Amino acid sequence: MAPSETTQPAHASTFARVGLLMYTFLIIYASLYPFSNWSDIGLPLWAFLIMPMPHYWTGFDVATNVIGYLPFGMLVVFALYPHLRGLPAVIVAVFAGVMLSGSLEALQTFLPNRVSSNLDFLTNLAGTCIGAFLGAPLTHAFLEQSRLLQLRRDWFVPDAGRGLIIAGLWPLAQIYPQGYLFGHGQVMPILSNWLSEWMESPVDLVALMTRDIQLTVQEYWLAETLITAFGMIGAMLTWSILLRKQAPRPMLLLTFFAVALGVKAMANALLFSPANAVAWLTPGAKGGLLIGTMMVGGLSYAPPVAQRWLAALALVLGFIAINLVPANPYFVATLQAWTQGKFLNFNGAAHFLSIFWTFFALWFLLHPAHRLKRV
C-alpha cells in the first residue's frame, strides 16, 4: 500500500470540539443545578479561595469532582489539536479548568443549595490536570491512527462528527427519571418553577394550557405510546442518517437501541431499587416501542433527506406532547422514593441531557451545514 494511502494529514477533530462544547454545558448545568433561590449573602466571589478547608468531606465527593473534570481536560487537549500539541495544549487545558471551575464555584456563592469550596476547586483542577496529561500522549492514537478511526471511516459518513456526539448522548439521556419513556425536552415544569419564583405565587403552565383536563388510564396509555414512539423514531433515524451504505445497519441500529434501554434499566435499578429496573416498561411504553420498531424498520433504508425530516418531525411532535400531557400519577408516586443525596451533581447533569437532548438533535437535523450525504 502506498504511503499516501496510509498517512492521513493532521486536521482538527469536529468530534472533540463539539464534545468539549457539550461537556462544558453539562458541567455548568450540573454545578448550578437546580438554578433556584438565587440570593446575595454578602461574600465576595473569590471568598471560597481564602476560606479554611472544609472539615466534612468524603472520598465520594473528591472522586466525583476529579472524575467529572477528567474528560474536560482530555477534550480540551483533543480540541486544540493540531494547532497545539503536547505541553502547550496541556497548559491551555489546565488554564481552562481553572477558569471554568473557579467561575462556577464563585457563582455557587449565590445558590443556597450549593456550597462553594476550595476543596472542590482543587479536586476539579486535579481532574483537569489528569485528563490533560492523559490526553496529550493519546492524541496520536485517537486522532491520527487507530482501529476506531478506521471503523469510523468505514461505517459512518465523513462529516458525522457532530451527529455522533448528539446520537451518543441519547442513551445517557435515559439516566434521569422521566414520566414517559423517551420523553425528553420537558421544559414546562422548569418554566413553571421560574415563573412561580418571579411572581411569588404558584404557576402551573401545563394546567393553564390544558385547563386542568383529567386523563383516563387509557388516555395516559395512549399518550405514553405516542411519546415513546416519537422519541424512538426521532433518535433512531438521527442515528441512521450517520451510517454509510456499506455499514452493518441492522446490527448498529439494534446495538444503539439496546444500549439506550440497558442504560435506562441500570439507572432505574440504581436510583430506585433493582425491582424497579424495568418499571418504565408499561403497556403504553410497549405500544410505543412496537410502533417505533415498525417505523424505524421501514424507514432505515429510506433516503437520508427523508429520514432527516421525519426524525425532526417526530422529535417536534414528541416535544409538544410531553409538554402538554399532565404528569403521569404513577411516575409521581415512584419519584417520591427517589432521594438525590450525594448524586445531586450527577443528577443535575443527567437532567440537563434529558431536557436539552431534543434541542441538540433538532439543531443537528435542521441546520443546513449538517445535511450529510450517505456514500
Helices, strands, pairings?
Layout: H1 3-6, H2 14-32, H3 47-50, H4 59-80, H5 86-107, H6 118-144, H7 147-155, H8 161-172, H9 188-199, H10 205-210, H11 217-240, H12 249-271, H13 283-299, H14 304-324, H15 329-335, H16 344-366
Helix pairs in contact: 2-4, 2-5, 2-8, 2-16, 4-5, 4-6, 5-6, 8-11, 8-16, 11-13, 11-14, 14-16
What does this entry look like structurally?
- With 375 residues, this protein is mainly alpha-helical.
- It folds into two domains: 10-145, no CATH class; 158-370, no CATH class.
- 67% of the residues lie in helices and 0% in strands.
- The protein has 16 helices and no strands.
- Helix 2 (14-32) runs antiparallel to helix 4 and helix 8 (161-172) runs antiparallel to helix 11.
- 35% of the residues are buried.
- Mean pLDDT is 82; it is low at 1-7.
Instruction: List segments where confidence is low: pLDDT < 50 over at least 5 consecutive residues.
Output: 1-7
- Mean pLDDT across the residues is 82
Order of helices and strands: HHHHHHHHHHHHHHHH
Largest sheet: none
Keywords: Membrane, Transmembrane, Transmembrane helix
Protein name: VanZ-like domain-containing protein
InterPro entries: VanZ-like
Organism: Noviherbaspirillum denitrificans
Keywords:
disordered N terminus; mainly alpha; VanZ-like domain-containing protein; membrane; globular
